[in-house]
């Protein structure tokens, strides 16, 4: 009521880093009510959860325990969905009164936390206007994926609501960013669609838990060494703002990030190093390297703009999601499924079609058996002799037109000589199933082939490993941000097709051979690609 | 009452994997009553437990706490014995009503868990007819020892009540058995005396905690890849059944497995890598390799049929057990004691005779000091320059006829030049005390010497490391099971003395040079050895 | 009352190893009362603790929680000080009645535990007459520092109230001392100022938790192997007693050990391997190697006798402590501050002077930013090319007469080319600030330079690494204890200036080339140095 009509207030951030759920008696009661609403009768729940196995049959919703690990997989998945719905209700308790008093121009956001898996961010962000996230990541490729994750929640630009001016204090080891790296990472955020980068914290509080957290102004109130770097950045942002206005990244390829699938795998990893986020980022890296901009989205989103979709671990694949994907494939889409895909239905129950569940008839093949791996197994794929890591599956073609790709070398006997991947035409598109996570070099080669097949190779493909190119496109021009994420200078060739004008120094060459110093950044404007 | 007189019911399995005890107030009360029954007065308990040390004196049984670690060693050992008695009472609560209604031909069993140390299996199995155990072991030598452990509880054939068709889901890393390995392990079970091998689980339940556990039939109800292997096995078992009927393994050597000793060492390990089961299996391997069939038994069992008994860590050695062993030694038995033997009495108190306690006067030597080791120490034993690992003791001969064997090289000064083992004639037999766990090569050489001295060398000694030979003997013939536990083929010579007939293909050679493919199994019948 | 006037009682040891505090409701109440007494009003506490940050403001002392980690740094430091005061009160509850009945000649002591940080030992020992400590340390250099710590509490000789005759039983791995090492360590204790060495335990109790602890007499009541070594030691002590009488170590250099600083760093380590005790001992080793006797004292103690004081991590540096140090510096003292010094005030709040806080104006420099390190960074210091480990800071000189020493090589950009240390004249003395913990070789070189600059180089500097020389000085003579802490013999030259007479065998050479056998000890008497 006090600030709602104040035009200098651009928006509202509610709460701080929604995180852990409660396990108290009230939460138990709410869970039971939520289950009763969902299943109607306890008999229905018993049937869906297969509680007759291990004598788990309930006669009353009130008997159902609350656990977040080592329980019936159906219970565990429902618990996560209940927690998500509870957070949504919590958010709406705050957004509803704000909207009654706020200007239509004022947005409502909160600050979420990257890959945090405590709730389904796709559901939660339906109740918010703007995605904000707290970026304390240290690896630049993973950071790229997290920015794309943030952008993907609502398929629009986002804010970095917090990031550190140098280092944090809450890790076991709190190492500083190199000189220049903070600026480079801020430009990376912008390149991926951030429209604001906010630093935590401005000046040290003299006491309290964050005395060792990075600051822009020291305990004496004077500029800390990083001040100058952030000052430069501010001036650059001011200069670049008109060019960035109205632009955002646009992708032809998408990576599917499905919370029920992540949860389901995390509940039952089978091999302890199988991390569903690492499985996603293993595919993200080569995909971005070859295809340029990548959207990280949920499988329920609109897929019309994509030519290639990669789903590294789509473990939970209900019928309706499968149909949504199939509709897109039939129109010409290329769908690449990774290992563990299509194993479970919406209740986290095994799909009797065998993997990839409802897509098995369309793939013309199914998985006959999975094998968790600690030692990698030899394989040959995409003209590369490599290794399959963490997981491997035997694929059984069920249609004469199913194509096989690559084969496993000798290991446990079961995999020896079996195909590594199979693919099958569906309408104008195709579905491919890859039964392992290949080592990095083999996966690079394989993803390059997929990207080429789907005609989504970027003109900026195959830049040196430490160079990142980000494109933001508007109605009449494109902004290209080039970043050297290494400590040392890197030289590379920018193709003529991407020739533009340097936004900060128009006299500098903006195509041909370019040298970026360590943590160097250049920003170009160029005509929109044809 | 419903199935008790049904002749198609062969027996009864009660409960599932008896495991952890309760620590609730009722358990406390029961423990106090059990102690009162055992000790009569609190003064008696105080004296036996030496509670005056550390001001632990109790004035009432109700004051005694319940802990399973870091407490008075007497309390800890009594707690384990109380838990055992409580499980016995629990089992009898089930067997008593079953026996009132069951046919005399119906056995009662339960499924125990290998080396699990929560109760004393020798005591528990007195209340059951048949030993059943759940075999989820992955190392074949340890698996061999566990089969012999199961057989030893009642000195008769047993059942494998559960084993996995490929892999399990409850380990941090759940790796699959190689193709052929499941069949090889089933034959190993039979070779060690199993009369049945049952698989968990037959077909995947679509939901519930074991979705990732190995199955014979998949979620679609059709055969999983392992089905064919188990089908072959079933056909082989059917064919072999008449030959196996009435046969079982018979041993001339025994390994003593004493639960009070295991518990006592586990309570007070002194060096963290000292694992009493690993100490047992360190001796089991070479013993089986040289002597063939090994019985794993408790020191209270009938010893008459053995020529050599090895007790690697007989830490708790009460007077009556010592006398039982001495009686057997005097008749010609060779007893080899390992380090930490004979340190404690039945109350887990130090024996003032010093190690090996009541046997010290008969050994003609005692241990003057023990040394826990992290770094192995050099030694010379059985013509081998090797190392002593984990534990070493200085032995002081007290009789001129005591023989010393080997000596320690230079290390901590205390051990330098001291004897590694001593032995002494007792009646027609002898007692030997070995004061360390030698490295594998030295232990092999030393055990071979012991086996030869006791005239128990097997005609199948010294087969290649991956080849296992199991003998089951009946009244009129012997069955020999030969197994290659390696992935790759192994060739070896089967001595003429073991020549027989191949049970599945009588045209194949059953002596002389034999090549077994990876995980290959051959089963022969032969005349009983003379 | 029974023993108070018994002249054969030399003193009283109260309690055993004061250790962990209570967190029960009574402790909460006592903490609240203690805070109220200290701060007067809750507003005052809120202001000092900066509770407005993170919405921690309290309206009542009763709301303040009790934690010993991950809380407001002011709360954490106050908790430790409250616990110290509570232990002091506990000790006085025992000393007051004893003193009412004891002879004036009877001392009161307790047995403390080396670096244990549960309370402030400098405060506690004000209520006791004699320092006693339980020495179960295994590294001889760390043991040396702990003896000096014990001596420093009251700046006088102390007792080793417990040490093991060979080994203990409460570590994960309980390894034995080598033959001869127990004697060598007892002489080390004496060399550092111990006037008694007491062994735990004499004879094994037959039951109870310490069955595996080292003993002098075994379970049979007869001498254990170590008995003879301790018997020899006893005879030596008897012979040496007259010479040792009235002597004690005297130091020209001191190492500051400040409990508030240790606590403050431990609460907020920033890099997990930063251990404030290891930071102290990193400096202790080269300091003792070059300067001989080192006092380990609190910064509040009398400093008049020192020429050089090293404060490796004086993190909490209130104004009054700074003035105490400055007064000594002005008289000619050399003060060497290590990294993390002078960051906090008495409330554990950041000092707005920036590091080293109240000393910054006198140093003519301050720290502009700290960097926690996992990877060491290159540096050049004291003519040595080395590495900075764990921590590095950028130093900004603020006075033209400030001298810089050494510089960092290229690493994170921020440190590149910055000075490693700065120093500044203050009155007749100087303050030096070293901004990292150099690797061992560089720190050796740097400390040697400091020791030389302060004219405190020992005539026994630079002895071989395993040889320790301890000096105890009395009014008319000095006792020199030479110890070889290695297993093997070491030969070295004892300078003529230290020539004396061998206390046990006066015919042996006591200067020039000396060979000590493994764990060898020699004790000389010599005239007091000029």
Automatic annotation (TrEMBL), chains A, B, C:
GO terms for biological process: galactose metabolic process. This is beta-galactosidase. GO terms for molecular function: beta-galactosidase activity; metal ion binding. Gene3D superfamilies: 3.40.50.880, Glycosidases (3.20.20.80), Golgi alpha-mannosidase II (2.60.40.1180). It catalyses: Hydrolysis of terminal non-reducing beta-D-galactose residues in beta-D-galactosides. Its EC number is 3.2.1.23. It comes from the Bacteria. It comes from Acetobacter tropicalis NBRC 101654. One of its GO terms (cellular component) is beta-galactosidase complex. Residues 470-525 form the Beta-galactosidase C-terminal domain.
